[in-house]
Amino acid sequence: MKKTRLSTAALLLAAATALAGCAPDPGGGGGTDANATKAATNDGGGNSASNCTNTIPKKDLPVVTMWGWYPNTQLVVDNFNKQSSDVQVCWTNVGQGSDEYEKFQTAIAAGTGAPDVIMIEMDRIPTFQIQNALVDIKQYGYDSVKADYGEGAWKDVSVGDAIYGVPVDGGPLAMIYRKDIFDKYKIKPPTTWAEYEEAAQKVKDEGGPAFGDFAANVSALTMALQIQKGAKPFTYDPAQKDTIGIKLNDQASKDVLEYWGRLASKGLVGTQDQFTPEYISGVINGKYATYISAAWAPGYLTGAGVGKGEDTGKFAVAPLPQWDPANPVQVNWGGSAFSVTTQAKNPELAAKVAYGLYADKESLTDGWTNQIIFPLNLKALNDPAFEELKVEFFDGQQANKEVYVPAANAYQGVTYSPFGQYYFDAMTKQVSALIDGSVNAAQAADKLQEDVAGYAKEQGFTVQ
């Protein structure tokens, strides 16, 4: 190739620009609840078992090292180690999201220092896979756990036919809304995007707040909404490793940008960057009637102070509005997995750890009851206790049963690109330009296509 595939410097920069992982990443993934206490960060670890955060109870067994940042990782690792008769896990938290990715990228460049197993956001898997940093674990027990996860979850951790991670948590999209605002303006939850615009216009005409928010810093959300309309941003098959399909200016992508740009220009939705104090203040104060977000949002919002005090009991959730209700499409924002690195001393043993972590009932139950994960393991997703849960944030609504579980089960997965963060950053730039009026939707999509396709060619790809 013309350059070392996604050169170390470029990837390190990309990783450093990303905000971390399951607490929502404005550019990329999402999932871990922001209100959970984070485990103490430890800069050590790598592929040495001499620097564990946890205590290993069965010292006569082989040890697999693991990096991860789930807030309940200590519990998850302890549960695994108690139950395992083959292997023990040595866990280190080297930082969340981009902090971990920087260290992993350094280890890739050095050829040493990576753990055997690493927690990674699903949309980052192709970035590391293309550097030969991750192991295809399909040969190491996939068939025995395949039925534990849905088709969409497996697709999100795949590159071509190969499996590069074990899915743990996800983010099926839905529409959170203020019941008090909907009641005041006598509107029902819209089931289509056309109804959403009509309701937004009605609320504005009657002097109400913005109906939602079109933010430049949530590119992964914008991508998901374009996919819902029918877009397929990337096609990539490692069997043709020098070729990538990039289609960011198709009609579906333009339609979604035009839709949200129109709502913003008419003042029907705001344009405040999300995950900021200003945005959260607006959510708390009723500045927005709806919040289009993922299943991890209730935990994130609770941790940010939403739904408390005067806000208590004012929120509900409804399915994501559809473009064509006769052909509904469910989409996802965020999620993480456990992957095996190519520096693993024993890939088969490491895969056993990846498959087994966060897969037992106690760990899964702790994860969803404490709003740390939205589980993808079907043993939890289909657990009556999970489905029937009356969610406090939604005033006792059975949100999982009514909204999130059906959305997760219907999700078909996507193909992520090997340079996802570059794409997210480029999307942010074009959406910002669309919001400020310097480009229209078609121009924004065309410029995005030119930018990302040009970057891919610089990396040595043939772009289709």
TrEMBL record:
Composition-biased stretches (Low complexity): 33-42
Signal peptide residues are 1-20
Going by the entry's taxonomy, the superkingdom of the source organism is recorded as Bacteria
One Pfam family, short name please?
Answer: SBP_bac_1
Matching InterPro entries: Bact_solute-bd_prot1, SBP
Keywords tagged on the record: Signal
Q: Where is this region: Disordered?
A: 33-53
* PANTHER family, alphabetized: ARABINOSE-BINDING PROTEIN-RELATED, BLR3389 PROTEIN
Q: How is this protein named in the record?
A: ABC transporter substrate-binding protein
